[in-house]
């Protein structure tokens, strides 16, 4: 024996289930938005001729910063 009438348009049980689902279901969101932070850097793999790499590495620590500065200057971004 079934309690309640599931075909009734104003079925309290269905209304309660729908309300529960609406309150507990996370809405589907689109793709995550990329946030660009000023000065943020990205890890890349780059093939550079050995003599160019040695030029930037010869002064020791900070060679990546020096290379980045040279690339920015060459690109007109400084």
Total E-strand runs: 0
Helical coverage, percent range: 40-55%
Globally, the shape reads rod-shaped
Return the average pLDDT rounded to an integer. Answer: 84
Calculate Rg over CA atoms.
30 Å
Helix-strand pattern = HHH
Instruction: Count up the helices.
Output: 3
Describe this structure in words.
With 78 residues, the chain is an all-alpha fold. The chain has a domain of 30 residues. It contains three helices and no strands.
Q: Summed up, what is this model?
A:
The protein has 3 helices and no strands. By secondary structure, the protein is mainly α.
Topology, pairings included?
Elements: H1 12-24, H2 50-57, H3 63-75
Key structural traits:
78 residues, mainly alpha, 44% helix, rod-shaped
């Amino acid at each position: 024996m079934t309690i309640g009438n599931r075909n009734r348009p104003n079925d309290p049980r269905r209304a309660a289930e729908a309300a529960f689902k609406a309150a507990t279901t996370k809405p589907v969101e689109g793709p995550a938005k990329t946030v660009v932070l000023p000065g943020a850097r990205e890890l890349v793999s780059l093939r550079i001729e050995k003599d160019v790499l040695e030029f930037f590495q010869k002064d020791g620590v900070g060679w990546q910063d020096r290379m980045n500065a040279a690339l920015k200057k060459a690109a007109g971004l400084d």
